[in-house]
Amino acid sequence: MHIDIDKDLCIGAGQCALAAPAVFTQDDDGYSTLLPGRADGGADPMAREAARACPVAAITVSGTAG
Question: In what residue span(s) does the 4Fe-4S ferredoxin-type domain sit (predicted)?
Answer without folding.
Answer: 1-29
